[in-house]
Design goal:
The complex is a heterodimer of chains A (about 270) and B (about 260). Chain A is α/β, with parallel strands linked by helices and about 270 residues long. Helix content of chain A is about 30%, strand content about 25%. In chain A, the strands form 2 sheets. Chain A has a 6-stranded mixed sheet, with helices on both faces. A 4-stranded antiparallel sheet of chain A has the order 2-1-4-5, covered by helices on one side. In chain A, α3 crosses α4. In chain B, α2 packs across α10 and α3 packs parallel to α6. Classes of the chains: A alpha/beta (about 270), B mainly alpha (about 260). At the A-B interface, β6 of A face α7 and α8 of B. Bound molecules: adenosine-5'-triphosphate and magnesium ion. The site of adenosine-5'-triphosphate (ATP) has 11 residues of chain A, from α1. Chain A: It comes from Andreprevotia lacus DSM 23236.
């Protein structure tokens, strides 16, 4: 039942070619081309409803593409020779299993100690035996994060994993994700609404707009990144101004730099 | 002082208040019987019913009838509920099973079990099998319908999540589908248990040589109204007990459910 990949997952390279997804007559993704290197950390941003979740679900093989395909290390997804974990935007915990059992879902053997360790890392060690219904929204999200991280997959897809968290816990979880990624070097796609988070974690920041990759911005800053630094702020500003320019590109050539701090959450 | 008494008094009042009206009714009943307002042919005094109960208990008769009725209900429910569960699982889990079986089951469901009684007597006489058949027939459908709907209404997102986390086959069923369907299945079980007793009462009063229903019908021939009333009360008690049992199952199996915390 469970994939017992013992080899430390070196990550998987993704190639997306001409990828489109339509729901009825609504085109969500349109002829998208994208290459992701093995072990790369890609942050994905974009307005609500632009198709970020759909992109992750396509890569996870949960939706079928209308045109084009996704290849992992050169072979089609459905051959399934690699290990993917998707952390869904909604936590999707099994309400009839304890927090600990939820984290260990799909694991076999002596998983309990490992599950407890991962739970401790997301700061929920003392909640191991509660039911999911007894947790707060942010706690549930962290359980889902623990459940995705415990597998150390070759490809980790995180769909707004930290959306419900307060600023402090958020930074802790970002550090946790970064540290695990540095240890295991799996490939990560992280969807976020927070541009600062995208710049802090991504090797690249992708902006999805109108069904395509509207901006593909490398983040050459050394890790761990200092949020206040000039380079950081400049990159953050570039992403934000690109997003702001979108609704009417001619009308707003230069966005007000003063307002940017307040607009971090505007996506 | 006063407040201490009143805070203590509230739970006592809360607990006892629902019983005041029944208690008054029983007292009124006893009074009416002893003052000749009610003749014992119509309704014997509560005390007379109790006496009849203790008399039959001491002779061992009551226990024998109780036991046989209980076993009929249990075995009939076991067979009917078991088949209903199995069919519900099949039609709930597989489209092909649904296509093949659901229409048939729904058609048979429209036959009222009590309408089968003449046929059942022709088939089985007043044999044990007749009672078991009726109870099984009547309990099959509530369990079937609720199992089927329970499985169909399991959260698709959870199933998708579990699949993408590598669960397939039996683990997927055990860890996701069955627990998701369980609240609905247990509703079916509670319905079926209530129904099992109703069917058993009818079956036992029409054709039996033992059991609570037989006890009542036999007493009727000898005009023992007290025993008849006793039998009616026993049925109520047994029905209540099985409902209590089903509730306990819910409390244990659905303890994760916010409604049971
Ligand atoms: N199963 C579906 N059927 C029909 N339309 C869908 C389906 N899933 C998504 N869509 C549509 O596709 C579009 C993109 O949805 P998606 O969930 O990918 O957005 P998103 O970028 O993740 O948004 P958010 O940031 O709000 O999560 C939306 O307009 C949505 O209505
Ligand atoms: Mg989304």
């Amino acid at each position: 039942m469970t994939q017992t990949t013992v080899t430390p997952s070196a990550g998987v390279a993704l190639t997306l070619r001409n990828l489109s997804k339509r729901f009825g007559d609504q085109t969500v993704l349109q002829a998208l081309d994208l290459d992701i290197r093995a072990g790369e950390f890609v942050a994905v941003v974009g307005r609500s409803g632009c198709g970020k979740s759909t992109l992750l679900r396509l890569i996870a093989g949960l939706e079928s593409a209308s045109t084009g395909d996704v290849r992992a290390d050169g072979s089609p997804l459905d051959t399934g020779h690699f290990d993917t974990r998707l952390m869904f935007q909604d936590a999707r915990l099994l309400p009839w299993k304890s927090v600990l059992q939820n984290v260990g879902l799909g694991l076999s053997g002596a998983w309990q100690d490992k599950a407890r360790a991962v739970l401790a890392e997301v700061g929920l060690a003392e909640h191991a035996h509660k039911w999911p219904s007894q947790l707060s929204g942010g706690q549930r999200q962290r359980v889902a994060l623990a459940r995705a991280l415990i597998h150390e997959p070759q490809l980790l897809l995180l769909d707004e994993p930290l959306g419900a968290l307060d600023a402090l816990t958020r930074i802790e979880m970002q550090q946790l994700i970064e540290r695990l990624w540095q240890q295991h070097r799996f490939t990560v796609l992280l969807v976020t609404h927070d541009v600062e988070e995208a710049v802090a974690l991504g090797d690249r920041v992708l902006l999805i707009e109108e069904g395509r990759v509207g901006l593909d911005l490398p983040v050459p800053l050394p890790r761990s990144r200092v949020r206040g630094s000039a380079g950081f702020a400049a990159l953050e500003e570039r992403v934000l101004s690109r997003v702001l320019a979108l609704p009417d590109r001619e009308a707003i050539p230069e966005p007000e730099p003063v307002a940017l701090g307040a607009l971090r959450w505007a996506l | 002082m006063a407040s201490a008494i009143s805070t203590l008094a509230v739970p006592v009042w809360r607990r006892s208040a629902p019983w005041i009206v029944p208690a008054l009714l029983v007292l009124l009943w006893q009074w009416a019987a002893t003052h000749g307002v009610l003749t014992s042919r119509i309704l014997p005094a509560p005390l007379a019913v109790l006496e009849a109960g203790s008399r039959l208990w001491q002779s061992g008769e009551l226990w024998a009838h109780l036991k046989i009725s209980f076993w009929r209900a249990a075995i009939g429910f076991g067979i009917g509920g078991g088949i209903g569960l199995l069919l519900g699982l099949i039609t709930g889990m597989s489209r092909r099973g649904e296509l093949l079986l659901d229409t048939t089951v729904q058609m048979i469901r429209n036959v009222p079990p009590l309408a089968l009684i003449p046929l059942v007597i022709l088939w089985f006489g007043i044999d044990e099998a007749a009672k078991l058949f009726l109870v099984a027939f009547g309990t099959l459908f509530p369990v079937y319908i609720n199992t089927y709907h329970g499985i169909r209404s399991v959260d698709k997102d959870l199933v998708e999540m579990a699949r993408s986390y590598g669960l397939r086959g039996w683990p997927l069923f055990r860890d996701v589908i069955l627990p998701g369907a369980l609240p609905s299945i247990l509703v079916g079980v509670r319905f079926a248990l209530g129904f099992a007793w109703i069917l058993l009462i009818v079956a036992e009063t029409i054709s039996a040589s033992s059991g609570i229903g037989y006890l009542a019908m036999n007493a009727r021939e000898f005009l023992q109204t007290d025993v008849v009333v006793l039998a009616i009360l026993l049925y109520a008690l047994l029905g209540k007990l099985s409902d209590y049992g089903a509730r306990q199952l819910e409390r244990v199996w659905l303890r994760w459910h916010p409604a049971y915390q």
